[in-house]
Amino acid sequence: MTRKSIGIIMNGVSGRMGYRQHLVRSILAIREQGGVLLNSGDRIQVEPILVGRREAALAELAAKHDIADYTTDLDAALADPRWEIYADFLVTRARAAALRKAIAAGKAIYTEKPTAETLEEALELAALAQAAGVKTGVVHDKLYLPGLRKLARLIDSGFFGRILSVRGEFGYWVFEGDWQAAQRPSWNYRAEDGGGIVVDMFPHWSYVLENLFGRVQSVYARAVTHVPTRVDEAGDAYAATADDAAYAVFELDGGVIAQLNSSWTVRVNRKELVEFQVDGTHGSAVVGLFGCRIQPRNATPKPVWNPDLREEHDYDRDWIEVPDNDVFENGFKTQWEEFIRHVVEGGPYPFDLLAGARGVQLAEAGLESSRTGRRLDLPELVLPKAKATEAPEAVPAGAHR
Ligand SMILES: NC(=O)c1ccc[n+]([C@@H]2O[C@H](COP(=O)([O-])OP(=O)(O)OC[C@H]3O[C@@H](n4cnc5c(N)ncnc54)[C@H](O)[C@@H]3O)[C@@H](O)[C@H]2O)c1
Fold first, then answer.
1. Which side of the chain, N or C, has fewer Cβ within a 10 Å radius?
2. Strand intervals (E) in 52-146
């Protein structure tokens, strides 16, 4: 008989990402629409159990959203065969230990990035999951942004000719917390708590670059802490020990050069909070979260450098807006639906813990490059063999139902 629902442990739902993107915009939206439409044509409904450390907060969330199950006992939830997927939105520092337990319990894993704090640990988790035969998924949300979907379409159509380079600007001013509250959690600015913009953003750049342009072969990065003191949620000043800006150059398979700035200490002078310019022999594009503008070579003006003449040409007007031609849903939700299909129906899924480990590899190499001033090559990752004692028996997804 076809299954009607799939149980999902949601750990860290009180957090920014856990609540807004994963619970409300993804799982509850999927529940509201009647579940995930499978390739078979059937629908499978989602059943979340909220997991966290504060029972009262969980009870309030559960009541607010009409969710039957919640617990502060992760081990009990992991031991219960009713829950098939373990999803993790904890602070990065707390993630690896929880993932290890969930893999050992035979759950399918869905997790925020970065998957671990070190490459060694990220690879170990990927190997454990492989040995246990559990399916894994890592959030690759930026690929689902409408702007980047349109960019992928342009690449597939051959619009660019040969792609030469990518220039990206990500960032905005994050308030220091003194005269205006900071709009990001304070742990983001403490290295000892897993913070830092390299650790936060390079995992995104890893999957964006490799899925659109080519695998990252090398990185040169300069990570800086521009604002050394900030004020936390309790109003106390603290030393910002983590980088709040990173200026990096990536060389990709196929010879594409990508140069990406990531900063929480920049004021926005662009159309969107992230913007990439892609230049190719046949055309260029500027894409953001939503927008995508192109300039084909046939419509490229011929500027001549002349400092004696005031600029009269409106370069903005040389660009053509690309139409949506599609309905773009929330990217977190779309990826959740794809992952649930993968868990229920099988088939390849590229955004797994090994892809997550490549993100951690890039962050680690970026920080080392910054420390040493060297450009670093990134070797292709392969999974080490997990030790037999660490590898639990494979529990096929759905075996308990
Ligand atoms: N995909 C994205 O675009 C994106 C954006 C921001 C953050 N993230 C990632 O999402 C994760 C959460 O980030 P956030 O901004 O939501 O953080 P947050 O601080 O808002 O939430 C963190 C959650 O972890 C819980 N938590 C904190 N310390 C814990 C501990 N020691 N043990 C167990 N639980 C603990 C908190 O209660 C909270 O539920 C991070 O790994 C971050 O890198 C991803």
1. N
2. 69-71, 83-88, 108-111, 136-138
374 is written with which tokens?
């060297």
30-44 as b/e: b if 16+ CB within 10 A: bbeeebbebeeeeeb
Going from the Cα of 68 to the center of ligand 1, the distance in angstroms, rounded, reads 23
Contact 248, 222 (CB under 8 A): yes
The two tokens of residue 216 are 């990252």
| Rg of the chain in Å (alpha carbons) | 22
Mean of the pLDDT values across residues 71-94? 97
- Is the whole model's pTM more than 0.90, yes or no? yes
Mutate to test the pocket of ligand 1, among 23, 89, 141, 188 (most ligand atoms within 8 A of CB): 89
Instruction: Calculate the CA 295 to chain-centre distance.
Output: 29
The pLDDT of residue 3: 81
Distance between CA atoms of 79 and 99, rounded to whole angstroms?
14
Ligand 1 geometric centre to CA of 280 (Å) = 38
Which residues sit with their C-beta closer than 6 Å to ligand 1? 12, 14-18, 52-53, 89-92, 94, 112, 139, 141, 185, 200
Distance of CA 68 to the CA centre of its chain: 29
Largest interatomic CA distance in the chain:
78
Instruction: Identify the three-state secondary structure at position 70.
Output: strand
